[in-house]
Design a protein that fits this description.
By secondary structure, the protein is α/β, with parallel strands linked by helices. The chain has helices spanning 53-69, 88-95, and strands spanning 11-18, 23-29, 34-39, 74-81, 99-105. Helix content is 20%, strand content 30%. The mean pLDDT is 89.
Length: 122
């Protein structure tokens, strides 16, 4: 049996990246194939207003409406980053008619990081 046979065509995964300058939303199927995407600038906002929560919600509504048209009804949200539009993305997807199954944080955290530079000797 192939992997494609057991995929649910009505479920998608919304990967949300919130930086301090923009919010990017990529919708994939459960196998990880990209179906559509949107960012803060596509919602009609330009410049520094792309980082606002309003721009993130507008981008989420764009993705949600497109997803609803192709038959996706359920969505899992994976949040990455520390931007302002983190939590308003769920509001935008919900207003587009999608059912949110889960919300998880996948922000990468260093366990110890890189080795610091050696001490300066004068």
């Amino acid at each position: 049996m192939e992997q494609k046979d057991i995929l649910d065509p009505t479920t998608g995964v919304a990967h949300v990246y919130c930086s301090s300058n923009n919010t990017k939303i990529t919708l994939t199927n459960t196998a990880g194939d990209t179906l559509m995407w949107a960012s803060g600038g596509l919602g009609g906002t330009k410049g520094t207003k792309r980082s606002t929560s309003y721009a993130a919600q507008a981008a989420a509504e764009i993705v949600g409406e497109k997803a609803y048209k192709i038959g996706i009804r359920n969505v899992q949200i994976k949040l990455k980053g520390i931007g302002k539009g983190r939590f308003t993305v769920a509001k935008g997807l919900k207003s587009a008619g999608l059912h949110i199954q889960s919300v998880s944080d996948v922000t990468p955290l260093p366990h110890n990081g890189c080795r610091p530079p050696k001490k300066r000797r004068v």
